[in-house]
Write the structure tokens for this entry.
Amino acid sequence: MDTSPGFAQNFTQNKEKAGLFLRRFQDQVTGHIINGEMVVPDKAEVFTNLSPTDNTSLGNVVAGKAADMDQACEAAARAFVQWREVPGAQRREILHTFADHITQRAEEIALVEASDCGQPIRFMQQAAIRGADNFRFFADKAPEAENGQALYQAEHTNFTMRTPVGPVGVITPWNTPFMLATWKIAPALAAGCTVVHKPAELSPLSACLLAEIARDSGMPDGVWNMVNGFGEVVGKRLTEHPAIQAVALVGESSTGSHIMRQGADTLKRVHFELGGKNPIIVFDDADFKRALDAVVFMIYSLNGQRCTSSSRLLVQSNIAEDFIQAVKARVEKLRVGHPLDPATEVGPLVHTGHLEKVCSYFDIARQDGAKTLVGGTKRKDLGPGNYVAPTLFVDADNHMRIAREEIFGPVLTAITFDDEDEAVKLANDTVYGLAGYIWTENTGRAMRMARDVEAGMLWVNSENNRNLPSPFGGMKMSGIGRDGGDYSFDFYMETKNVCVAHGTHKVPVLGT
Ligand code: NAD
């Protein structure tokens, strides 16, 4: 099998190919995949999936009911009995085959994904490749997933082993749906869990491709199930179902709170990757050009619809004027356009509702006294899609809503600070704690900031650079738990302790 991804680099070809790949979703209703089969229940209700580029229909999708979710959870429970017994080395082979299939269909995945969620094709090609990498990485860890530690003492030896928790629920958002689904599901399968995936209703298509690839990769039926529909219905049922042992959510902080409540009766184990209002802190001794590149990239790439986006620029006062002017010049030149155009840097937002949310902050900023230096408007000149001008707010302070709330669009709020203490205070003055970026050439200061900034992930003199074994996750309202490498197995597996006596110790005697 040829496993090298090939991508067209031309807008016209991309549109033609995307049209072919999307046709199937328009010709027939997209259902659930349960026990290896596409299921469209009798008298199913459907919702229309809209294109971010012009809000026309990309096809109808089943709005699942609780009973559909029950069927998927039961299929996952039945399959678990078999999948947990598949040796790690064999799971590795299956997961590598899966990664090969992703690579082979990478162009289709990238085109469908960009069409469905509006993210520029240049980033979705990378995301498709990263999806395969996620599978390869966890495939190679599958044989060692059960390994534990031996803890020898004089009269007893304790040893630990890990066993898969059971069927798990994975609930994903719409911002980079394909990549995020692979990031959560690959370690679950490598650990020996079976999965019920609930993709976001605003971008359901790539989840369907993933579940199909699972079937084609030799994964037994029922190991990977996928149910479409709304969070409040099928998502809720997934988090309540007694067969589901753990729930991994990537989504908003408020959704995490709902899931905690919904999962309380069945004491669900949860792993949450939630929202953020991440600071990027630029000191006067930073490498100006590299910091500028990173500031622009980390908020305007992926349409700013990225949990780790650096939506608050904290810049030291004595360089603020120059730095902000340099950011302004870049933002004005960002290429906003159709997501399938390889030249596009910022695409349309996922949905009209989200467009309205993002645009509501243009008025909020004005009312709160901030100045709009660039953008602050819709881009109606680009047609009926959800296009918005990349935006830069200045003269802002950290009390304003544009500095406190997750806007989740290509919108940056710049705030100045005088010294290190003030930078830390501003950085931490938020309910969130996902990521932070520190730009300084002073190593001691970088180390102090890394300790003091309240975030699960800090990058020093770098944009978001991922290393798959490193822990990923947030503090405060940004999440619970970490994944990446062995951290993922901690979530998807139970650690059992076994204590074995050497036959020499005195057993307490009663009743003689
Ligand atoms: P969302 O919370 O609205 O939806 C996420 C998923 O949860 C969807 O599949 C939705 O249907 C489901 N859901 C909603 N209500 C539910 C309920 N009551 N029970 C069960 N499931 C329910 O989030 P979104 O708008 O799709 O995505 C954007 C959010 O995701 C942002 O806040 C962003 O920061 C966050 N995010 C976080 C990370 C991270 O790693 N920390 C990564 C990407 C996105």
Summary: The longest helix spans residues 121-141.
